[in-house]
Specification:
The protein has six helices and ten strands, in the order E-E-E-H-E-E-E-H-E-H-H-H-E-E-E-H. By secondary structure, it is α+β, with helices and mostly antiparallel strands. It has an eight-stranded mixed beta sheet. A two-stranded antiparallel ribbon has the order 4-5. The longest helix is centred in the first third of the chain and has 14 residues. The protein starts with 9 loop residues before the first strand and ends with a helix. The mean pLDDT is 87.
Length: 212
């Protein structure tokens, strides 16, 4: 339930890679008049590790607040975003060189890895295939891959291509690189859609598994 908090007034969760775009997750949370985003531009070794990284980011990569004697505690910025990486190779260096807010989030102990390892593949095989993972550490077939969007109490699963959209005047590289990358290109891209109030990622994946 780390992403689902009662104080959120907005919650967009886009998981898995849309086509060939270089984004594997983009989370947009709205609360306390803040736009709080988490961007995952690179593939993790497993879905479990990516979800673990998102959980770590939500808990630790938090927007700064300051205290005012008249209005009390309030956010310093109205926009706060981080880019989360599994390691310091590849894009990490480029993001760091340009001053982007980046954090490494991954399994820190073998116990954490053992606790989660392999469960997603067996519990949600269609969602795992959509994310690009198959049994035995192999990649899933391209025809099985897709992505999931949860927005405004609506769950949508997609395959194919997403729209080519960019955020104007946004710093690059940065967390905004992941924004607006999951929008389905057309109706043919949408595999299934259901109106549902979701309170946890498990509920989300259960609903998505039935839509593929």
């Amino acid at each position: 339930t780390f992403l689902f908090q009662k104080e959120d007034v907005k919650l967009d969760i886009c998981l898995f890679q849309p086509g060939r775009k270089q984004v594997h997750a983009f989370i947009d949370k709205g609360y306390d008049d803040i736009f709080h985003a988490i961007h995952v531009p690179e593939r993790y070794e497993s879905v479990e590790e990516m979800l673990f990284a998102l959980n770590e980011s939500v808990q630790h990569d938090t927007p700064p607040y300051e205290h005012d004697e008249y209005i009390g505690w309030h956010p310093v910025y109205n926009t706060y975003g981080v880019t989360v990486f599994p390691n310091t190779i590849g894009k990490w260096i480029n993001y760091k060189m340009h001053g982007s807010t980046c954090h490494l989030r991954y399994y820190k102990t073998s116990e954490q890895e053992a606790l989660c390892s392999g469960k997603f593949l067996t519990t949600f095989p269609k969602c795992a295939a959509a994310a690009g993972y198959a049994q035995g550490g192999k990649r899933s077939k391209e025809s099985e891959r897709g992505w999931i969007i949860y927005r405004n109490n609506t769950l949508t699963v997609c395959r194919g291509h997403s729209k080519d959209q960019k955020i104007k005047h946004a710093p690059h590289p940065g967390f905004c690189d992941g924004e607006m990358k999951h929008e389905p290109e057309n109706d043919a891209t949408i595999v299934g859609r259901v109106n549902i109030k979701i309170n946890s990622l498990q509920e989300r994946f259960c609903a998505a598994e039935a839509l593929w």
